[in-house]
Amino acid sequence: MRSARLLSLSLIFCLSISAFAQRSNTPAQPPRAAAKATAAAPTITLAVDASEAPRKIFHAKMNIPASPGPLVLYYPKWIPGEHGPTGPVVDTAGLKFTAAGQTLAWQRDGVDMYTYHLTVPAGATSVEVNMDYMSPVESSGFSAGSSATAQMAVVSWNWLVLYPKGFNSDDIQVRASLKLPAGWKYGTALPVANNAAESVSFAPASLTTLIDSPVIMGAHFSVVPLQQGQNPPHEMDIAADSEAALQMPPELKQAYNNLVAEAGALYGARHYRDYHFLLSLSDHVAHFGLEHHESNDSRLPERYMVDDHLRLLGASLEPHEYTHSWNGKYRRPAGLATPEYETPMQGQLLWVYEGLTEYFGYVLTARSGLWTPDQFREQMANIAMQYTYRPGRQWRPLEDTATAAQILYGASPAWTSWRRSVDYYDEGALIWLEADTIIRQQTGNKKSMDDFAHLFLGPPSTGPIVKPYTFDDIVNALNQVAPYDWRKFLTDRIINVAPQPPLNGIINGGYRLVYTDTPNEITKAVEEERDFMDAASSIGILVTKDGTIQDTIHGGLAATAGIGPGMKLVAVNGRKFSFDVFRDALKATTSSKEPLQLLVENTEYYKTYSLDYHDGVRYPNLVRDTTKPALIDDIIKPKVTTPPTTSPSATQ
Ligand SMILES: [Zn+2]
Questions:
Q1: How remote is the CA of residue 517 from the centroid of ligand 1, in Å?
Q2: Residue 645 lies in a domain
Q3: Where does residue 166 rank: exposed (0-12), middle (13-18), buried (19+ CB within 10 A)?
């Protein structure tokens, strides 16, 4: 998964090993196959009516086989890929249970809000359930966030289903059907049984597969086949808020074709029957990406495909979510491979699940031509700066940001530098870049993380199965690729407090991180499109276009002077704040002996702060270090495709 926050700042931005080992776990981790099945797993019938999607309300009618006596039903709580208890039970309404012609009394569990208790009357063989789901109006959050507009919607089945206690989601079967708004088209990885006008019947599938297979639908809809004629099939199913937004430029189509081919070359196998890139283009849905085994639910601004800056900022989303089919869905940390949606997940290994996905996602973005080589290096420079100015690393190990994922996704951006955030994404990417350069150094550039990808995520090709892994499995696989003290390498950077940022991948890769007064293309796009300026490396503030100080670098110049997050930068050297005024004033500090004067508002009080700062504006960039081989350039070379001659992003 990738959150809106990772996307918006991204620049600054969602399993080994034998058939037998698949189901075994260490004692601390929840076993995947743990249900005490005393009865045959049921087949649930689920009819979803999405015809009122533009009103943001969805109706479900279920038939759940049941025997007379007490019955416990669960609403899905821990949503795969969201790494937390994010099931939107608060947005359900109209709950009604009937059996044998009677309306049943029900009670929510006093402790677990996702559990319902009822009693099935004598003579009944099943329970009918009616339930509505109201999609939020605010465009924030993940799959429980805004998902419907006047013109399109994404249906996540976990909103609309209850299931009985005592069974693994792999064993429960669901016969689902879906009614669409008149005239809308749809796309999904869920196999279809029958396609009638505006109503679709799906083939019976496990509850796992159903919840893993959302449906995208809309009035403006296009299907773009990728690597046409090859098996397994791939397609991009795009729903947009306008017909104009669906016009995919040829160079972008070529890059997505390349992405499918380059991923095949990187991993050497595929673990899906077919693959659907479900792409929502709207300014009124939550922006994020959520991985699934045979599809991904990626949501970007309406004009993503037709605006250069938006394309540059959104380029790495599909490669990230697609990579999760291998890393996250097929191979999954044992603590995240839970038997159903009620068992809590444990995220300690998210620096592999998300960090390695971030790394391979960036590499594939460059190899496929969605980014130019320069843009890949710009992204590395930007995240290197971000994690250089992250003093929270002085107290908090990277692993703890993964363990605490379920609370950190919802944390305020204020105080991120001191609290840390979901740092296992991009700090993880820097650590995996370093691992790649070490493997290349150890083997005379004959082996690389590509070999790890083949060994750990690759052959043989399978359907969508889950193979859990542990920390030891990662260490062992790295040692199989290139012997090295990988346990110490990972322990020093991830398990222990690591005060120094992991920049060795850049250095080993033949580049140096430098600060200049020129923003790179990605930084420029972030400032202009995201209305966000990162001055962490100069006076230590992150500020939005209206002057709101989102965060201060703990221990930095501004913080030490008394400035904190939530305050507002009103004027710089006596002139009203804007990015241009601020940038020019920072530049001028190199030739001025005067302090930088900042007028700041704090809860209706104004104060001027004088900062004795003379190092100018400092934007991160990578420059070539010719004393070392350019391993970074080798890493991002396409393996099987020719990148588009015109860059699909940032053409002027
Ligand atoms: Zn992810």
A1: 32
A2: no
A3: middle
Domain co-membership, 397 together with 355: yes
Please report the pLDDT score of residue 21 as a whole number.
Answer: 30
**Residue-averaged pLDDT of the chain:** 94
Q: Is residue 532 part of a domain?
A: no
Given CA atoms 180, 182, 188, 190 in this order, what sign does their dihedral have?
positive
**432 alpha-carbon distance from chain centroid:** 17
Q: Are residues 143 and 291 in the same domain?
A: yes
Distance CA 360, CA 327 (A): 10
DSSP code per residue over 447-508: --HHHHHHHHH-SSP-SS--EEE-HHHHHHHHHHHS-S-HHHHHIIIIIS---S---HHHHH
Residue 625 CA to ligand 1 center (angstroms) comes to 32
652 alpha carbon to ligand 1 midpoint, in Å?
30
pLDDT confidence of residue 649: 61
Least reliable range by pLDDT among 7-16, 85-94, 423-432, 598-607? 7-16
Instruction: Mark the residues whose beta carbon lies below 5 A from ion ligand 1.
Output: 1, 14, 354
Query: How many Cα atoms are found within 13 Å in the side-chain-facing hemisphere of 147?
Result: 29
| C-alpha of residue 358 to centroid of ligand 1, in Å | 7
* Same domain, residue pair 107 and 203: yes
Assessment of whether the complete model's pTM goes beyond 0.90: yes
Cα–ligand 1 centroid distance for 476 (angstroms) = 24
What range defines the domain where residue 465 resides? 331-511
Of 132, 133, 130, 131, which Cα lies nearest the Cα of 145?
133
Reported confidence tier of residue 139, pLDDT bands at 50, 70, 90: confident
User: Domain check: are 231 and 340 in the same one?
Assistant: no
> Does some domain include residue 324?
no
Q: Do 275 and 408 reside in the same domain of the chain?
A: no
Shared domain for 354 and 466, answered yes or no, is yes
Ligand 1: centre distance to CA 207 (Å): 22
Measured in angstroms, how far is the CA atom of residue 627 from the centroid of ligand 1? 35
pLDDT digits (tens, 9 = 90+) for 492-539: 999 999 999 999 999 999 999 999 999 999 999 999 999 999 999 999
401 CA from centroid of ligand 1 (Å)? 15
Classify residue 367 by its DSSP letter: H
- Distance between Cα 355 and ligand 1 center (Å): 8
Q: How far is the CA of 320 from the centre of ligand 1 (A)?
A: 6
Query: Which residues on adjacent β-strands are paired with residue 610?
Result: 597
Q: How far is the CA of 103 from the centre of ligand 1 (A)?
A: 43
Q: How far is the CA of 74 from the centre of ligand 1 (A)?
A: 26
Comparing C-alpha atoms, which of 83, 44, 2 is closest to residue 337? 83
Final residue belonging to a domain, choices 307, 323, 341:
307
Q: Are residues 498 and 546 in the same domain?
A: no
How many whole angstroms from 2 Cα to the centroid of ligand 1?
Answer: 5
What percentage of the chain reaches a pLDDT higher than 90? 90
Cβ neighbours of residue 98 under 8 Å, at least 6 residues apart?
A: 104, 127, 128
Q: Give 147-186 pLDDT, tens digit per residue.
A: 999 999 999 999 999 999 999 999 999 999 999 999 999 9
Distance of CA 359 from the midpoint of ligand 1 (Å): 11
pLDDT of 459 above 70: yes
Domain count, the chain: 3
What CATH number does residue 397 fall under?
Answer: 1.10.390.10
Question: How far does residue 629's CA lie from ligand 1's centre (Å)?
Answer: 31
Does residue 577 lie in a domain region? yes
What's the CA-to-centroid distance between 569 and ligand 1, angstroms?
A: 34
| Segment 86-103, tens digit of pLDDT | 999 999 999 999 999 999
Residue 594: give its domain's CATH number: 2.30.42.10
Q: Provide the pLDDT for residue 38.
A: 55
Q: Within this chain, do residues 377 and 414 fall inside the same structural domain, yes or no? A: yes
How many A from CA of 324 to the centre of ligand 1? 7
